[in-house]
């Protein structure tokens, strides 16, 4: 059984890498789009199987525990629905001539390499390997953001590359410092980078060194989470790349960086003399939330607007984890899952909308519920969900975050609620503007499949109405792990 | 560790900081590339010395990569790109040289204060190495923010990576995985950048980032 567990663990890595090679070799875009879906489906099955089969012992490089399994399964699920969405999206892009068949071959191979990088970041038990994986996932998305080769796409990709690299460089420096702190205790060599060993012995590490290391790690990986003031790459990268990539960036890649920050937070919490990471995370989280909430009002580009909304939600999540404690951690985890599902659903909808209307300008999109009811209403539900209205899942997690904040630090709840309300106003204002009013633009029916959007929204609605007790128990357990 | 080995290691790491300062005031692209090649050369010497001192043969590989790839191949390739694309060879800096140098001095002081204070127990070589490495990293960052030109930014980024390699080799016994990954990431970075420069050339007549900034999505 343990062997089976190890196989599943490696399967989530091997499937994407094999798929990437195959996809790079196959010329036909129709086949590759479907193969891309098939590979993502296989990865998802492998990820799900991690739940049922017994876990392997943590190895020197790879391991699966209760924390990362949540991320792996979420990653594989959104990766799957995004590949389904992507198949219909790229078909349209090919017809309109924005992408060529050669572009698509490259795109599909890169998609799987990105999935590989993200999965590797989740399962790696070595902080060096984790860094490599995040870097790999970043670089593969950089080239995909620039794939349209327009002025805007190139600028976005360049900015993303430069800021992402600086962030990743700071993170590596932090990683080296963690090794320096661990070396006197654990000894030289591989062991001093194995996360499970680091956590065991963290109490004996030099706290001052760990503190400095965490600051670098938070700034470095925080750039990739999109925390203000290091967020500048995020709106451009979301707005100018292909929409499936925007969905994956918001829904998954930000989570990867967040996951790594959480790993190091646990490490810091295990060392009693080190600084509490909470205040730093709370400050960055609140800054991002309030900044992004105000920025939402001035957006004219629909994808850019939802990119700012991602910054806002990442701010909320980092705030929740910064607060700490079982309840806030639980809420943070739940919010992260809900945000991934909702935001990617919105980006799927936005992708279809932009293709039908031929524009990303908010002002040029009106009356969507009249011309395309199936799409328009789904979009509206998504916006309502992300704005945090009941009975959807995001409301529940936001409510938990606010109430747990009131219970422990009432003063901090004021800026939090303020930011939430400001963002709420902007999202509802723009969302209703797009959904209702005099229809503009093309009214031609779209033959694209809305299944991925509906699947995500049903899950979000379901989670808002009823969370199954085993799931709650699981989340609570993970929340306790996070300290 | 005896006095001489320490002194040599110290001198080489300090030399790297000095060359980083030299990067700061270059206002010609070719000169910038030449200084960068020198930067990589000093790094390679420093890493080789560490390999000798720590008796860690795998570090010689890192030194060789720095020597061949960073001090040789990359500057030459960038030279050719500049020629092929006919890029304007003067670099526009965002702020004056004097201010940049002052900021650089401030950053070095900052990294000394931070790193020396938090590592009183570490062995002196690793300690000084880390402080120097952080200086090089921050100076690389400063090169990046003060250049408007894409190639200038790339050079700043590579100088920053050199600082990381210095830190990684200074940390005794750090697994090879990381050194290779650093070198590897530079290779990837370079491929990516190469593609980028190429594509930028396809569309623009300049590799000046300011020209890209004109196409902000918000102002469409």
How does the overall form of chain B come out from the CA principal axes?
globular
Largest sheet data of chain A: none
* Main beta sheet of chain B: none
Mean pLDDT figure of chain B: 78
Distance between the termini of chain A: 31 Å
Radius of gyration of chain B: 18 Å
Low-confidence stretches of chain B: 201-207, 215-220
Tell me, rounded to a whole number, the average pLDDT of chain A. 89
What is the number of E strands of chain B? 0
What portion of residues of chain A is helical?
A: over 70%
What is the C-alpha radius of gyration of chain A, as a whole number of Å?
21 Å
Total domains of chain B: 1
Work out the number of β strands of chain A. 0
Most extensive interface: A-B, 51 and 53 residues
Q: Tell the overall outline of chain A.
A: globular
**Low-pLDDT sequence parts of chain A:** none
Strand coverage percent of chain A:
under 5%
Strand content of chain B: under 5%
**What series of H and E elements makes up the topology of chain A?**
HHHHHHHHHHHHHHHHHHH
Q: How does the helix and strand content of chain B classify structurally?
A: mainly alpha
Oligomer state equals heterodimer
